[in-house]
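Dear colleagues,

I hope this message finds you well. In preparation for our joint manuscript, I am sending the Cytochrome b5 heme-binding domain-containing protein (Coemansia javaensis) sequence together with its predicted structure, so that both groups work from identical material. I would be grateful if you could confirm receipt.
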Amino acid sequence: MDPPAIREDPAAAPPAQGPAAAALPSFPMLNSPQRLGAPVGGAPRRRKVNLKPGHSQMDWMRLASSGEDLRGVSTLRPLTMDEVARHNKRTDCWIVIRDKVYNVTRYLDFHPGGRGELMRAAGKDGTKLFYDTHGWVNFETMLAKCLVGFVAR
Ligand code: HEM
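The corresponding structure tokens are as follows:
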């Protein structure tokens, strides 16, 4: 008696080859804003920069939980905007978001939008800039160890 014929599973998808492969979805989608420089029709173009090795957001969270002093002040206290304004340099950069004052000097090299973008808020209230750009970013968690005080109104 002949052995039973081996039949391919009709439900199994054929391997993606030829023109059909191009029709398959890819992840992230080719026009996804998750792709750097993606040719996006209609959606805003991403402006993320290439960060130095060892400067991913995971690396930042690791540094933030390392116990290293990122604030540069010994106590949290009320601060005037005049005092905040004095910290407007790359080597000494404070910004205000929702009345909280953060020392972002160490975060500058980790900012996915680049140092220059973050420096736009150096020594200033960056609340509007921040929310206009990325209201979904959880700054309070990310910068918790950089808090230096609160704006005195
Ligand atoms: C206030 C001044 C700031 C400006 C002008 C600014 C600007 C930008 C820009 C232009 C991008 C790229 C957006 C894109 O490609 O779609 C970006 C990304 C990002 N920024 Fe900022 N930023 C600011 C403050 C901050 C702060 C304080 C934090 C952290 C707590 C932060 C965290 C991030 C993160 C996590 C991303 C990546 C967002 C994503 O992948 O969706 N930024 N920023």
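For the figure legend, we might mention the following. Residues 57-64 form the longest helix (8 residues). The longest strand covers residues 92-97.

With kind regards,
E.M.
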